[in-house]
Structure formats: C-alpha cells, structure tokens
C-alpha cells in the first residue's frame, strides 16, 4: 500500500513538473536543480510515511484479527481504514492528476493556436539577425515538441493508472459495506501490479531521455571504469 501510495504521489509530481515546464519552461528549468528535485522527492516519501502512520497503528488492535487462521491474510475492511486509503491515497491524488493534465492539454492547445497565428518573418533574408532568429525559432520549436511528447507520454501513464488502479479502490470502498469476493480483490491487485510494471515500459517506449537515464542507472559502474 505504501509503495502504491508513493507511486501515485510521484505521478502527480511528474504531472506538475510537465505543467510547469510547458507554461514557464525557461525559468522553471533554471530553477530545477538537483537539490530542488531531491527535496521534492524526499517530501513525497515523508507524506507517504505520514499517510501510513494511522493504518500501521491500527495493526496493534488484536480484535480485528480475531477468528482468523494463522497464516491467513485478509484485507482491512474497517470504515476508518477504507476512508483513509480511498480518499487520501486515491481520490485526492487522482483528482490532482486530472486537473493538471487537463491544464497541460489546454495549454498545449492554446500554444499551438498561437503558433499558427504568429507572423514568423520579422527580419529580411539579408538581415544579419535573420539567421539568429531562425536558430532561436528552431530551438523553441524543438523544446515545445519535446514537452508535447512528454505530456503525451504522461497522458498514457495517467490513462493506464486510472484504468488499472481504480478497481482495487472500488473494492476497498465497498468492502466496508458488503463482502467483496476474494477473487475479485485478487484480480484488482493483479491489475495494480500490472500498472506498476507497465509504467517503466511506457516511459521507455515514449522517451529516449528515460531510456538513457535508465541505462545510466543500471550501468552505473561504467562511469567508474572510464576514470
């Protein structure tokens, strides 16, 4: 549950990062240092740990586990736990994801319309500034296309998240009111793990930067061999 919660918060953080990169690309990228990224990632794990404190404390309540056979695993179906996990670990982050991605989509759409209306030839072909203007234009275009591709990749990830993760939270929600079949819970859990395993595949398929970064992490010893 903790890793699932952290994964959801990280998706929201990535969506926010994409949104800021598109809306305020140059300024935001200058501020996005290793230290700032480290602080944000660490904060996500602190929030995740805080979210899990109350459920962990409930494990000390022996009454909820009475009547169970040794070695038998059962989902906690108490109303307090269900509200905590469904609202705090799903609906709030999922709503944030939808809002951010909607803003990203609308911003890209607005920027595309603005680009179509722009009058590009400002300098004459003989002007010494025309070559510089062309370089700036191409760099800006390349940056925008890269951000749009990253936003599209994020859309695939969020779409897969909503489709594969929602069933398990629906099961948790109804488990406090009715008995949910164990097989249904198991199937929902398999979908969650499929989502977790599929995210890196989507990232790698859509982003060459992710493939390079992943290779750098896996083959980190090559950096030491080159020295």
Automatic annotation (TrEMBL):
Transmembrane ranges, per UniProt, are 37-53, 81-108, 153-175
**Topology versus the membrane:** Multi-pass membrane protein
Output the superkingdom of the source species: Eukaryota
Using the record's annotation, list all stretches that form the G-protein coupled receptors family 1 profile domain.
1-203
Extract the PROSITE patterns matched here.
G_PROTEIN_RECEP_F1_1, G_PROTEIN_RECEP_F1_2
A GO molecular function for this record?
G protein-coupled receptor activity
Q: Extract one GO cellular component term from the record.
A: plasma membrane
- Localization in the cell: Cell membrane
Output the Pfam families linked to this UniProt entry: 7tm_1
UniProt keyword terms in alphabetical order: Cell membrane, Disulfide bond, G-protein coupled receptor, Membrane, Receptor, Transducer, Transmembrane, Transmembrane helix
The record ties this protein, via PANTHER family, to: ADRENERGIC RECEPTOR-RELATED G-PROTEIN COUPLED RECEPTOR, DOPAMINE D2-LIKE RECEPTOR
Family, similarity comment: Belongs to the G-protein coupled receptor 1 family.
Protein name according to UniProt = 5-hydroxytryptamine receptor 1D
């Amino acid at each position: 549950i903790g890793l699932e919660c952290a994964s959801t918060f990280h998706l929201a953080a990535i969506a926010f990062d994409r949104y800021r990169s598109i809306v305020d690309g140059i300024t935001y990228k200058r501020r996005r240092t290793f230290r700032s990224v480290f602080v944000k990632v660490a904060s996500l794990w602190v929030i995740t740990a805080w979210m899990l404190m109350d459920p962990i404390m409930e494990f000390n309540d022996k009454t909820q586990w009475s009547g169970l056979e040794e070695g038998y695993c059962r989902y906690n179906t108490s109303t307090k736990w269900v509200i905590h996990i469904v609202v705090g670990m799903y609906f709030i982050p999922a709503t944030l994801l939808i809002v951010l991605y909607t803003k990203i989509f609308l911003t890209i759409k607005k920027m595309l319309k603005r680009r179509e209306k722009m009058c590009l030839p400002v300098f004459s072909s003989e002007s010494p500034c025309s070559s510089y203007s062309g370089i700036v234009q191409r760099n800006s275009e390349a940056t925008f296309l890269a951000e749009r591709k990253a936003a599209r990749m994020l859309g695939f990830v969020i779409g897969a998240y909503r489709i594969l993760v929602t069933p398990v939270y629906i099961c948790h929600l109804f488990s406090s009111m009715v008995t949910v079949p164990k097989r249904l819970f198991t199937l929902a859990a398999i979908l969650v793990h499929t989502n977790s395993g599929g995210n890196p595949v989507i990232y790698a398929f859509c982003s060459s930067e992710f493939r390079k970064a992943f290779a750098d992490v896996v083959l980190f010893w090559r950096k030491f061999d080159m020295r």
